[in-house]
Design goal:
By secondary structure, this protein is α+β, with helices and mostly antiparallel strands. The chain has one domain: Glutaredoxin (3-Layer(aba) Sandwich). The chain is 42% helix and 25% strand. Strands 2-1-3-4 form a four-stranded mixed sheet. A hairpin with a 2-residue loop joins strand 3 and strand 4. Helix 1 crosses helix 3. It is globular.
Amino acid sequence: MKIQILGTGCPKCKTLTANAEKAVKDLGIEAEIGKVTDLKEIMAFGVMMTPALVVDGVVKSSGHLLSPEQIKKLISA
């Protein structure tokens, strides 16, 4: 599983990254978590508001700071 956090490095982006890491750890799954900070790359996903969460190339959330519990639901579905 590949999880990407889209954002320019703002505090919300950093918190979303930490929450994604916690969700993956809590679920006990293997996932590569990466950050995308380049605006052109972010826009290529069709995202206009950050932070955004992308799972295996699919945008799951944009413009919201998700909790670890919310992220678990998205990546388990």
